């Protein structure tokens, strides 16, 4: 099936170019070092902001990778080939988003506990943290395909991509970081996680449509 | 042909749109200026002083109409965006792109007047309450639409369609953003300050009147500004077309009809 062929190719390309995978993690590590330096290294101070920091780092480190989802394919012409091959663009963008999630989202999820330890996040919140990231990272990738499809033939489009994607990610951050925060305060995170799941489902259905539309306009 | 249908079709064609709406500019501007003057004078000097907020509440006569416009214009952008996207109408593109800077301007005015109002009322210029936060995010959405358009400016039609797509995505997300932000603040702060909501709304006609007049004035200003921007947008993007040449020739010869 073309979906899997494209998916396999993208994962393989990212895997061969290792920097795609470790760059976001190195970025997280660099930035998380700034917090104790700026805030003071007290465990209590850090624990207070930890849910937000871990979450925002996951978000930002994904954000820096989004620009390239379609850029390379656009520049070497393979994107034209996808379109010419008659492949359903909805499935093509879904495949791109899945591949991006596997190569960026999963490493970010797996790396989150490391950041959490460095930020003294209370241990009983780890489960919710991982669950919230598991629900949210697909949204990053899906909205990322939309943003990337919009800016793929602009030079230095990264800033514009942030402007386009950030407002859409605000609810995700509210629900995701909110879930971890509520757990750390001893409350139930159920409501937040449910709403986050709603966002995941919504972007899973709608984002490929928008990305496909953007590709069509861009290749006209 | 039915007159309304005919009018509708005429408005869809750039030359007729230009020809018809050119005559609307002056009356709209006139109404906007007169109503603004009336509304401001009435609001600043004749409306009764608020028993709680004193005179500083009077910024409401600028703040609230601007806030209404900031959201109203985004809705128009969304509708024009859908028309642009589905039917590729040039006039819809022009209207949409004409709306964006005006909407962004009203959003900035809303935020600034809100901050100025916040200082005497809440003791701080900025408070992350639901309205301010979602207004700020609305500004980001406006900036996004402007940004994508200017990135593709060499190809205005493509730029307009991509901007339309961004506007539609924003429109779909606006309710989600809005409710998530409302909910987020309700968790952190208990109840946020409600100035107009529920039974505490303005009941005094002397206070309401300038507010409504100002709301009308901003509408007329919007129509004026939007139409004149849309007209120059069409002149610019259609500059190779015959009708533009005729328009220019006509206006150079001083014929205003």
TrEMBL record, chain A:
<keyword id="KW-1003">Cell membrane</keyword>
<dbReference type="GO" id="GO:0017004">
    <property type="term" value="P:cytochrome complex assembly"/>
</dbReference>
<keyword id="KW-0472">Membrane</keyword>
<dbReference type="InterPro" id="IPR003544">
    <property type="entry name" value="Cyt_c_biogenesis_CcmB"/>
</dbReference>
<keyword id="KW-0813">Transport</keyword>
<keyword id="KW-0201">Cytochrome c-type biogenesis</keyword>
<feature type="transmembrane region" description="Helical">
    <location>
        <begin position="101"/>
        <end position="121"/>
    </location>
</feature>
<feature type="transmembrane region" description="Helical">
    <location>
        <begin position="21"/>
        <end position="43"/>
    </location>
</feature>
<feature type="transmembrane region" description="Helical">
    <location>
        <begin position="158"/>
        <end position="181"/>
    </location>
</feature>
<dbReference type="GO" id="GO:1903607">
    <property type="term" value="P:cytochrome c biosynthetic process"/>
</dbReference>
<feature type="transmembrane region" description="Helical">
    <location>
        <begin position="193"/>
        <end position="215"/>
    </location>
</feature>
<dbReference type="InterPro" id="IPR026031">
    <property type="entry name" value="Cyt_c_CcmB_bac"/>
</dbReference>
<keyword id="KW-0812">Transmembrane</keyword>
<protein>
    <recommendedName>
        <fullName>Heme exporter protein B</fullName>
    </recommendedName>
</protein>
<dbReference type="GO" id="GO:0015232">
    <property type="term" value="F:heme transmembrane transporter activity"/>
</dbReference>
<feature type="transmembrane region" description="Helical">
    <location>
        <begin position="128"/>
        <end position="152"/>
    </location>
</feature>
<keyword id="KW-0997">Cell inner membrane</keyword>
<feature type="transmembrane region" description="Helical">
    <location>
        <begin position="49"/>
        <end position="66"/>
    </location>
</feature>
<comment type="function">
    <text>Required for the export of heme to the periplasm for the biogenesis of c-type cytochromes.</text>
</comment>
<dbReference type="Pfam" id="PF03379">
    <property type="entry name" value="CcmB"/>
</dbReference>
<keyword id="KW-1133">Transmembrane helix</keyword>
<comment type="similarity">
    <text>Belongs to the CcmB/CycW/HelB family.</text>
</comment>
Automatic annotation (TrEMBL), chain B:
<dbReference type="InterPro" id="IPR003557">
    <property type="entry name" value="Cyt_c_biogenesis_CcmC"/>
</dbReference>
<feature type="transmembrane region" description="Helical">
    <location>
        <begin position="207"/>
        <end position="227"/>
    </location>
</feature>
<dbReference type="GO" id="GO:0015232">
    <property type="term" value="F:heme transmembrane transporter activity"/>
</dbReference>
<comment type="similarity">
    <text>Belongs to the CcmC/CycZ/HelC family.</text>
</comment>
<feature type="transmembrane region" description="Helical">
    <location>
        <begin position="28"/>
        <end position="47"/>
    </location>
</feature>
<dbReference type="GO" id="GO:0005886">
    <property type="term" value="C:plasma membrane"/>
</dbReference>
<feature type="transmembrane region" description="Helical">
    <location>
        <begin position="164"/>
        <end position="187"/>
    </location>
</feature>
<dbReference type="GO" id="GO:0020037">
    <property type="term" value="F:heme binding"/>
</dbReference>
<keyword id="KW-1003">Cell membrane</keyword>
<comment type="function">
    <text>Required for the export of heme to the periplasm for the biogenesis of c-type cytochromes.</text>
</comment>
<dbReference type="GO" id="GO:0017004">
    <property type="term" value="P:cytochrome complex assembly"/>
</dbReference>
<dbReference type="InterPro" id="IPR002541">
    <property type="entry name" value="Cyt_c_assembly"/>
</dbReference>
<feature type="transmembrane region" description="Helical">
    <location>
        <begin position="94"/>
        <end position="116"/>
    </location>
</feature>
<keyword id="KW-0997">Cell inner membrane</keyword>
<keyword id="KW-0812">Transmembrane</keyword>
<dbReference type="Pfam" id="PF01578">
    <property type="entry name" value="Cytochrom_C_asm"/>
</dbReference>
<keyword id="KW-1133">Transmembrane helix</keyword>
<dbReference type="InterPro" id="IPR045062">
    <property type="entry name" value="Cyt_c_biogenesis_CcsA/CcmC"/>
</dbReference>
<feature type="domain" description="Cytochrome c assembly protein">
    <location>
        <begin position="29"/>
        <end position="187"/>
    </location>
</feature>
<keyword id="KW-0813">Transport</keyword>
<keyword id="KW-0201">Cytochrome c-type biogenesis</keyword>
<protein>
    <recommendedName>
        <fullName>Heme exporter protein C</fullName>
    </recommendedName>
</protein>
């Amino acid at each position: 099936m073309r979906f899997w062929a494209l998916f396999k190719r993208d994962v393989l390309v990212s895997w061969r170019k290792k920097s795609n995978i470790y760059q976001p993690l190195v970025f997280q590590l660099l930035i998380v070092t700034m917090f104790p330096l700026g805030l003071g290294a007290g465990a209590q101070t850090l624990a207070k902001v930890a849910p937000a920091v871990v979450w925002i780092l996951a978000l930002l480190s994904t954000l820096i990778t989004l620009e390239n989802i379609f850029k390379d394919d656009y520049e070497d012409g393979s994107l034209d080939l996808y379109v010419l091959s008659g492949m359903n663009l909805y499935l093509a963008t879904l495949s791109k988003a899945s591949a991006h999630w596997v190569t960026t989202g999963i490493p970010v999820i797996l790396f989150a506990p490391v950041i959490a330890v460095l930020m003294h996040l209370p241990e009983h919140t780890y489960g919710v943290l991982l669950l919230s990231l598991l629900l949210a990272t697909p949204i990053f990738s899906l909205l990322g395909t939309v943003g990337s499809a919009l800016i793929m033939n602009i030079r230095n489009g990264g800033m514009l991509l942030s402007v386009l994607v950030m407002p859409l990610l605000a609810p995700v951050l509210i629900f995701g970081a909110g879930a971890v925060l509520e757990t750390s305060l001893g409350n139930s995170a159920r409501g937040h996680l449910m709403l986050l799941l709603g966002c995941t489902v919504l972007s899973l259905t709608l984002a490929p449509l928008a990305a496909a539309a953007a590709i069509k306009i861009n290749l006209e | 042909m039915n007159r309304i249908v005919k009018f509708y079709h005429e408005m869809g064609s750039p030359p007729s749109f230009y020809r018809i709406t050119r005559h609307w500019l002056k009356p709209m501007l006139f109404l906007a200026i007169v109503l603004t003057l009336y509304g401001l004078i009435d609001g600043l000097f004749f409306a009764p002083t608020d028993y709680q907020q004193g005179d500083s509440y009077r910024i409401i006569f600028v703040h609230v109409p601007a806030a209404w416009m900031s959201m109203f214009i985004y809705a128009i952008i969304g509708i024009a965006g859908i028309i642009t996207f589905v039917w590729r109408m040039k006039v819809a593109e022009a209207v949409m792109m004409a709306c964006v800077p005006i909407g962004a301007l009203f959003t900035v005015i809303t935020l600034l007047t809100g901050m100025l109002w916040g200082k005497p009322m809440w003791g701080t210029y900025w408070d992350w309450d639901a309205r301010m936060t979602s207004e700020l995010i609305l500004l980001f959405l406006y900036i996004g639409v402007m940004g994508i358009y200017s990135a593709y400016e060499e190809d205005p039609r493509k730029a307009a369609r991509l901007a339309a797509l961004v506007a539609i995505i924003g429109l779909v997300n606006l309710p989600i953003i809005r409710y998530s932000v409302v909910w987020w603040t309700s968790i952190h702060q208990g109840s946020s300050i409600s100035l107009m909501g529920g039974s505490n709304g303005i009941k005094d006609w002397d206070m309401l009147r300038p507010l409504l007049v100002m709301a009308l004035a901003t509408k007329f200003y919007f129509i004026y500004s939007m139409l004149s921007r849309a007209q120059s947008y069409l002149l610019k993007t259609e500059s190779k077309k015959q009708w533009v040449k005729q328009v220019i020739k006509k206006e150079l010869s001083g014929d205003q009809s």
